[in-house]
Amino acid sequence: MSTDIQRLHVAARLSEAAVFNGVVYLAGMVPECEATDIRSQTADVLQQIELRLAEAGSDKTRILRTQIYLKDIADITAMNEVWDAWVVAGSAPPRATVQAALANPVYLIEVVVTAAVKP
């Protein structure tokens, strides 16, 4: 395994992903779509996660840990419907879901993922 840190989509404030020692660490993924409902925003964020994981040499079956932040915890049932359809049976990762004040009032969800890179 490499001891070099690889950073993806580097900006002044943050990188969207970092890969080190066979593990990819994603920044908090927030909706890029203009939707204002939790189902659409969740689907958008999960699609972004898949893209970032693929870029780093991983996929959603290799997620080690997920942290989900919801603007309103009352959205958890609708969010879970989208999550449950997305997650691969038998590969559901450890997960925490909490209510939190998000950086942009338009965001209903933010998701942080850590995953193993494919060998």
Give the ordered list of helices and strands. EEEHEHEE
Secondary-structure class: alpha+beta
CATH class: Alpha Beta
Number of structural units classed as domains: 1
* CATH homologous superfamily title: RutC-like
- Number of E strands: 6
Unreliable stretches, pLDDT < 50, 5 or more residues?
Answer: none
Rg (C-alpha, Å) = 14 Å
CATH fold annotation: 60s Ribosomal Protein L30, Chain: A
CATH architecture: 2-Layer Sandwich
What does this structure look like?
The structure is a single chain. The mean pLDDT is 96. The protein starts with 5 loop residues before the first strand and ends with a strand. The chain has helices at 38-55, 76-86; strands at residues 6-10, 15-20, 23-26, 63-70, 95-99, 109-116. Strands 1-2-3-6-4-5 form a six-stranded mixed β-sheet, covered by helices on one side. The longest helix is centred in the middle third of the chain and has 18 residues, at 38-55. Helices cover 24% and strands 30% of the residues.
Task: List the main descriptive attributes of the protein structure presented here.
single chain, 119 residues, alpha+beta, 60s Ribosomal Protein L30, Chain: A, six-stranded mixed sheet, globular
Brief write-up:
The chain has two helices and six strands; from the N terminus they run βββαβαββ. It is of the alpha+beta class. β1 (6-10) and β2 form a beta hairpin.
What secondary-structure arrangement, pairings included, does this model have?
Elements: E1 6-10, E2 15-20, E3 23-26, H1 38-55, E4 63-70, H2 76-86, E5 95-99, E6 109-116
Parallel strand pairs: 4-5
Antiparallel strand pairs: 1-2, 2-3, 3-6, 4-6
Helix pairs in contact: 1-2
